[in-house]
Design a protein that fits this description.
single chain, alpha+beta, Arc Repressor Mutant, subunit A, 2 domains, 3-stranded antiparallel sheet, two-stranded antiparallel sheet, 4 helices, 5 strands, about 20% strand, elongated
Length: about 120
């Protein structure tokens, strides 16, 4: 099932496409490939020429997505899940507000139709 990230409609994730890596509009073009090329000095125009099936807005959204990922705070999932399970007594069917390292986080299970 293909999902999108909220605020990034051109970025899709599907376990069946590129092993679930963030891709451009369901194609086999990953955000990482676009960012890697830009980081290596390839211009947007060169990317568009090399990959005529992507659009300028795809490249720009990839840059914004990369910036968004870099600004996120990451936690080890194992302690977060252990804490969530302890605080919710194992019931993660609904939202759970958990405290990890003196900060509160909302953890909730997504339905298959929801965005990441």
């Amino acid at each position: 099932m293909t999902r999108t990230y909220e605020g990034f409609p051109r970025i899709t994730v599907d376990p069946e496409v590129m092993t679930g890596k963030p891709c451009i509009r369901g194609m086999r073009v990953t955000v990482g490939m676009i960012l890697g090329n830009l980081g290596a000095g390839v211009s947007i125009d060169e990317l568009l020429e090399t990959y005529p099936y992507i659009e300028r807005d795809d490249v720009l959204e990839s840059i914004r997505f990369g910036a968004w990922l870099a600004s996120e705070k990451y936690l080890s999932i194992e302690p977060a899940l252990v804490t969530a399970i302890e605080q919710t007594k194992g019931d993660l069917a609904a939202d759970a507000l958990v405290t990890i390292e003196n900060e509160q986080y909302r953890i909730r299970r997504l339905s298959p139709s929801e965005s990441l």
